[in-house]
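Design request, tokens follow.
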């Protein structure tokens, strides 16, 4: 096994450890490598199963699978008439996830289709990398894989699938697009970054052997691509903000329960949806207006579902909601009888978006202790960026507060703790990457040393250490 293969398996194991540590309801993870084009061979890299009643993960590929070495080519697992449908084929071709939230009704369960047996509750997530970052400016020469009917896939997409993550869950604990599946989607970007980095290292290693005379040019390309890969570490802040949104949602729920007489965002949006959806059926003869009304309905539902920051919600309302309502109210008279009510609701909507940050309301929330109240509101409305990463420690202290009564508190604490490890190690990774780039450009290190410098338990102990320097475990 080459050192690139060792790094690939190590990266996959780290990703499985991260996902299982964030999701207590998950018990097994498998990662498949996909590629290259147009063969798109799918092969299991590693599997990890958490042993029942312990923190130990058992690694390896113990069960028989068609995806063990040498794996299956695209023509063997793609959708074809008369062939058993596979979730792998769906994820690779469509570049979207597949969730078996009810294995009894899973149309892509191979085991069920062949032998009538029920598989696990699982979620499969494709790992995407931009074509431009993987292939540079050689996109026109790419040979795309084709579906059964001869149509090239991915031709109109900006991405390629380089891996697929499969996570098994306890029965009836997942739903499509729930918190667990969204977290896996966020973390899949990290794996894409690592796979891209490994790809770049392997490309550099080969180019050093074959194109020694082009060393300087090759290093310039590598520097550009590697910096792009490091920028992708910003995924961690998206994941952090997704967790903080849960904390913000719980804070606003506390205020709504304490002050039900106020006009809150959910009630206003629900009434706007009612007023909008009623006359939609009468717009069949006006396709353009019907399209505007349907788009507005979708955006109202989306705004009601997402726990956005007030500034984000305001932009959503100003750019998406208000213009469409103005079109409907000024060009059609179907809403004539409710025109004033709609305008009043829209007028109240913007102030309602900021009720969660109202200091006077917060002071009247007597059921929450003052110290907890102040920290909760401050942190719930913080948008985390690299310069605010130090506030993560305050968030973890908040989650440890004995009087903080919110759902999924322990899961939230574990997820943020794992993400904080990544945030803390990013500066070291950046420094290491810059050192590698300089060493390659000026030859201060040997080729083998340059290529070998990277993620390892010895080089980056922060990724593997728990509290007080102890080895990481699922009970941390």
């Amino acid at each position: 096994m080459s050192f690139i293969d060792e790094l690939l398996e190590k990266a996959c194991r780290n990703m499985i450890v991260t996902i299982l540590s964030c999701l207590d309801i998950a018990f097994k993870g498998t990662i498949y490598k996909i590629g290259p084009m147009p063969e798109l061979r799918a092969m299991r890299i590693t599997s990890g199963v958490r042993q029942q009643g312990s923190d130990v993960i058992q690694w390896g590929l113990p069960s028989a699978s068609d995806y063990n070495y040498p794996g299956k080519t695209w023509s063997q697992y793609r959708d074809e008439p008369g062939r058993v449908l596979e979730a792998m084929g769906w994820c690779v071709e469509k570049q979207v996830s597949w969730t078996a939230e009810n294995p009894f009704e899973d149309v892509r369960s191979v085991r069920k289709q062949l032998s009538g047996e029920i598989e696990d509750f699982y979620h499969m997530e494709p790992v995407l990398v931009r074509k431009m970052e993987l292939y540079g400016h050689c996109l026109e020469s790419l040979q795309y894989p084709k579906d059964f009917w001869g149509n090239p896939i991915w031709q109109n997409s900006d991405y390629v699938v380089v891996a697929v993550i499969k996570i098994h869950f306890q029965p009836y604990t997942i739903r499509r697009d729930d918190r667990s599946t969204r977290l896996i989607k966020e973390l899949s970007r990290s794996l894409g970054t690592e796979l891209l980095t490994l790809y770049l290292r392997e490309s550099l290693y080969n180019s050093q052997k074959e194109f020694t005379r082009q060393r300087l040019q090759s290093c310039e390309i590598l520097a550009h691509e590697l910096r792009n890969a490091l920028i992708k570490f910003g995924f961690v802040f998206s994941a952090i903000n997704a967790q903080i949104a849960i904390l913000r949602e719980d804070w606003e729920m506390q205020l709504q329960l304490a002050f039900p007489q106020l006009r809150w965002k959910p009630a206003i949006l629900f009434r706007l949806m009612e007023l909008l959806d009623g006359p939609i059926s009468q717009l069949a003869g006006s396709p353009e207006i019907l399209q505007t009304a349907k788009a507005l309905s979708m955006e109202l539902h989306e705004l009601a579902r997402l726990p956005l920051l007030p500034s984000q919600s305001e932009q959503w309302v100003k750019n998406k909601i208000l213009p469409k309502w103005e079109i409907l109210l000024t060009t059609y008279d179907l809403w004539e009888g409710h025109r004033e009510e709609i305008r009043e609701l829209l007028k109240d909507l913007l102030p309602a978006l900021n009720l969660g940050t109202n200091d006077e309301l917060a002071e009247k929330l007597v059921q929450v202790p003052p110290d907890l109240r102040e920290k909760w509101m401050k942190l719930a409305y913080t948008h985390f960026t690299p310069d605010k990463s130090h506030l993560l420690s305050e968030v973890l202290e908040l989650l440890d507060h004995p009087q903080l009564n919110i759902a999924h508190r322990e899961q939230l604490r574990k997820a943020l703790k794992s993400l904080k490890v990544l945030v803390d190690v990013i500066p070291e990774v950046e420094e290491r990457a810059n050192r590698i780039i300089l060493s390659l450009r000026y030859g201060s290190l040997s080729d083998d040393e340059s290529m070998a410098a990277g993620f390892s338990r010895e080089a980056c102990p922060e990724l593997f250490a728990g509290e007080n320097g102890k080895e990481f475990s699922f009970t941390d």
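Comment from the thread starter after seeing the answer: thanks! The domain at 1-188 is CATH 3.30.450.40 (Beta-Lactamase).
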